[in-house]
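Annotators were shown the component list below and the corresponding predicted structure, then asked to write short factual statements about the assembly.
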Amino acid sequence: QKEVEQNSGPLSVPEGAIASLNCTYSDRGSQSFFWYRQYSGKSPELIMFIYSNGDKEDGRFTAQLNKASQYVSLLIRDSQPSDSATYLCAVNKEAGGFKTIFGAGTRLFVKA
Amino acid sequence: DAMVIQNPRYQVTQFGKPVTLSCSQTLNHNVMYWYQQKSSQAPKLLFHYYDKDFNNEADTPDNFQSRRPNTSFCFLDIRSPGLGDAAMYLCATSAKTGGVAKNIQYFGAGTRLSVL
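Structure shown to annotators:
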């Protein structure tokens, strides 16, 4: 089992729809959770981070964390073609630690 | 603007010819990381520095070395590149500010390494 698992996609949604991206992790003691966006050939860019169970909203983005189910998700409302990218889920395993484990990412395609 | 800068953006080397990739930062972050990312794969942590303390991942090949001469600069040395080392190399930084480290990482643009 991979430490951080994501569906590779591609996930295809029409413009204006909600895109839902999911991630599961194996280490129940994981502390911090991140979503990065990566355009093809570019480096990852932080979108959201979340530490506590529940929802965290920032503009069109909502991160959801359920530690009991070891599940974190990212919702993108009013999806735009410019949101088309690979979304990487990342998990920090230890409080105060530096090691972050990345998932392989989900490719999102927003159709105009 | 404060940022993480990687040079060069593209590097072509020959099989077995040593190569050095560089990373500099103006964020004054005390943690610097090197990742290797191959196509459609997750970034894989090679090592990180917390200030001058070097932390090597257990599965990082000996062929990969790193130097951090000061807070701002960090180098990745590949002593004898093989064809399997062709990848994007990403440098990232984060700030350890006490308590639970948020470990929000800021990435440079990456160096794409080709091995001929």
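Statements collected:
1. Chain B touches chain A through 28 residues (CB under 8 Å).
2. The first strand of chain B starts at residue 4 and ends at 7.
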